């Protein structure tokens, strides 16, 4: 491994930060995450360029997934996440249309493509995991590629919408990656990016030492805030709108707040929250309790968005050059 293969400097301003966000990451690994105060970006110590592709392999799923069972099969991932694409669809729907072409880079098993295909003229998926890409092609009835987008025959400047969800934080050079995505967008086309939020409430609002360590892990070289994501998009030639999205429900946060440990139940924590109410209780009481809880959940998510403490950031950008 050469020095150029090791990531330590800020990719946005070039500085070598010394402030440390953590000295321990998920799994009890001793590894620092530095913080560039100028750009508000977290940087994993000695992140390597080889980790970019490693993420897309099954090892990531087996080691790091906390939303579905470890080692989940491609079909299980598709089934698990298919119902939870609503926020992405809502934000991108203004750009949809039957004449539009959409490319998703990091498409996984096709959970988003499956829905998007119904609202645009053509969808194309790209993912380093060839097995996931093949499954997406089968279930979505679309063309997919199990490789880097630059190694595909997809023409540059051919897409109205280019998406990459939960992917930018894994690549070796985020600005270069964004520029590559932009190259496949038409003039006036958009690039939509979703990443975890450095200021996730469980890390930055609640006092949870275990979650703080759990949040950081060796598959993420970068930890974006709204400021650093916007700066990366601008540096890559995009202007647009930043959105704050909360996926996990309030019961998940209350569990973490109570025991500072993950809640069992996988993707159920992404659904509208429900309590274990007795079937013999009156329908009116069960309905009122459920409605109250779900209103609280919606209010809580709005509050997190207001204070920029959501789990995810979502940027919709147009090319400026």
UniProtKB/TrEMBL annotation:
It comes from the Bacteria. PANTHER family: METHYLTRANSFERASE TYPE 11, TRANS-ACONITATE 2-METHYLTRANSFERASE-RELATED. This is Methyltransferase type 11 domain-containing protein. It comes from Candidatus Kaiserbacteria bacterium RIFCSPHIGHO2_02_FULL_49_16.
